[in-house]
Amino acid sequence: MNAVIIAVLVMLILSLLRVNVVFALLIGALAGGLSGGLSLTDTITSFTDGLGAGATIALSYAMLGGFAVAISRTGIPELLVSGVLKLVNKDGKATRQNLAKALIIIALLTMAILSQNAIPIHIAFIPLLVPPILHILNELRIDRRLIAAVLTFGLTAPYILLPYGFGLIFHEIVYKQMELAGLSIDMADIPKAMAIPVSGLLVGLIIAVFFSYRKPRDYHTNVSSIEETVKKKASTKDVLVTIIALVAALYGQVQTDSMIIGALAGILVLYVFGAMKWREADAVLTEGMQMMAFIGFVMITANGFAAVIQATGAIEPLVASVSDLFAGNKAIAALAMLIVGLFVTMGIGSSFATIPIIAAIFVPLSLEFGFSTMAIIALIGTAGALGDAGSPASDSTLGPTAGLNVDGQHNHIWDTCVPTFLHYNIPLVIFGWVAAMFLS
Question: In what residue span(s) does the Putative Na+/H+ antiporter N-terminal domain sit (predicted)?
Fold first, then answer.
C-alpha cells in the first residue's frame, strides 16, 4: 500500500480507538515513514525537522487563549449568559427555549463565518464565547455535536467560497499553485467554481441541524457555576475597554498578518486600561494558554507528520497511480482525485498546506483527462478543502472541541471529528464531483 494511505489510516484508526491525537499522529508518521522506505532514523529526523513549522501557530493559539480568558474575566460574556437564562426561564418555556436555541445557533454560526472573512480571527472567538454558554446549552439540552457542526461549517465554508480574509489567502494559494503547475487562471473564477462544492457543505449543515442532532441530549450541569456566572457583572468601563481591546487585536493582526501581535495588542489594552488586574494577569494568561495548549501540541505534531509524508515521496506515486488506474474514465478519475485530496488533508490537517502538495500533479493530470479550467479549479479547491472538517489535526475541529470540552463532556474524535466528517466530507465529495463533471 502507498505510504500516505498507511500513515493516514494508522492515525485515523488509533484516533477512533480514543488514543490521544498527538500519539496517533506520531505513530502514524512512523508507520508512513517506515513503509515509505525511510529508515527509522530518517523518519524521526524528518518528523523533528518538521515540528518547527508548527511553533508559530502553537504560540499564536496560546496567546489567543490568554487574550480570550482575559476578556472573559471582564464579565462581558456573562452578560449574554444572564440574558439568555432569563429568556429561558420566563413563561411559555417551550417556545422561548426554541427561540433561545435558534438565537444561539445563529449567533455562533454568524461569528464563525465572520471569523474567516470580515473579522479574520479564526478560532480565537471560540474559547471566548463558547465556555460561558455551556450552562445554557445544558439547560436547553442542546446536543453539543450540533454546535460542533455549526462551528465547523462557519470555519470552513466561508474561506473556500469567499475571497476575503482567510478566504483570500486560500484563493491566492490555489491561484499561485495552479499557475506554477502551468495553468493560469482568473482569481475571479474561483468563487464561481467553488459555489457547487460549498452547496454540499450547506446541505450537510441543514442535515445536522434539522435531522441528525435535533433531539435533546443531557449533560451534567454545575449549578453553583451557573449562579456564579449570573452574579458576574461587567461595568460600562469594562465594556468599552473590551471593545477597544478587540479593535486593537484585529488591527494588530491585519497590519502585521500575525495573530501573535494581534493578541499581544489586545492584552496590552486590557492591561493599560485596568480591565485586567496586574496581580491576576499571570494566572489569567496561564489559564488561557493551558486551555489552548492541546491545539498547539496537535498542530506542532501535525507538521512533523506532514514532513514525514512528504519525505517519503509517496504523494506523487499515489496520484500517478490514479491516472494509470482510471485512464480514459473521466468520472472515476475525478472521484479518485477527490479521495486522494481527502487522504492528504486528513493527515496534514490543513487545506492551505494540501493545495501546494496536490496542485503540481493534479493540474497536468486533469488536463490529460480533458477537464476545463473551471472544472480543474473545482477539483483542486475541493480536494484541498476535503478533510479539513473531520481531521483530528485540523484547527477547524480542534477549535470547537477546545470550547465545548471545557467541562470534559465532549470527546474530540467522536463528538467533533466523526460528526463533521460525515456531514461535510461526504457531501463535499459528491458536490465536488458534480461540479467537476458539470463544469468540464
Answer: 2-87
How would DSSP label each residue in 357-412? HHHHHHHHHHHHHT--HHHHHHHHHHHHHTTTTT-TT-HHHHHHHHHHTTTS---I
Q: What is the DSSP letter of 210?
A: I
**The three three-digit cell numbers of residue 22, written as one number:** 498527538
Nearest to 83, CA basis, from 96, 69, 95: 96
List the one residue out of 90, 71, 17, 76 whose CA is nearest residue 288: 71
- Whole-number Å distance between alpha carbons of 42 and 258: 33
Q: What share of the chain is helix, strand, coil (3-state, %, to 5)?
A: 80, 0, 20
Report pTM. Answer: 0.77
- Contact call for residues 156 and 396 (beta carbons, < 8 A): yes
Chain Cα centroid distance, residue 51 = 20
Cα 298 to chain centroid, rounded: 13
Residue 403 and residue 130 in contact, taking contact as beta carbons nearer than 8 Å: yes
d(CA 386, CA 389): 7
Residue (of 265, 241, 271) closest to 252 by Cα position: 265
Question: Per residue in 193-204, pLDDT tens?
Answer: 999 999 999 999
**Nine-digit cell at 14?**
488509533
The residues near 17 (Cβ < 8 Å, ≥ 6 apart) are: none
Distance in angstroms (rounded) separating the CA atoms of residues 204 and 421: 10
pLDDT (tens digit, 9 = 90+) per residue, 242-266? 888 878 887 887 787 677 888 888 8
Amino acid at 215: K
